[in-house]
């Protein structure tokens, strides 16, 4: 992330250097359910500025039931400072921190980009001018329990090809946010006993994940209109410790019976 001139190309004095902003995340590999920290760096430029309001939001772009795309605000990161002044030529560093919700989507799996749009949006108001909005792409790493489950699907021949966010609650399960993330898993090996593509969804909380698996239907967005799903639970402490193969194979066998 680099400094951006968000306050116009020139100051009120004509040729004065305009103020600048840079939002930086200092936490390495942020994950759902864990703390995230960083700082907003403000440069006063030639005129300085008086900040009236400063706010940081974690925002996701997600599909609606009709295939349209909208923004979903997941959480706010606290700065503890809202009104302050940056003098001309000075630099002000404003730390922020917060905790990503357990339901927070992930943008990458072991460095593989998943195609999910997550951002950290910094909004500020200054000296009665028009509000300024700075948007930075946010990298969220998959937690170990996701990796463990998807590794087992990989052993069964189903590999992660991408992901999608859908702004909808999963029916009949308890969730704090109406947003779920679909992982699309493809199978290079074709056969009568295999699915061409699967959808895997993780509903995560402090204890672990409830894993849903179903035959993929990319053109359908509403949960109730998709093919039936089967589910199994995995605790966080089981990642890398328990043999999850039996649970995955049982879910695949149950799906085959549904489609049979």
TrEMBL record:
UniProt cross-references to Pfam families, sorted A to Z: Spo0M
Name this polypeptide is given: Sporulation protein
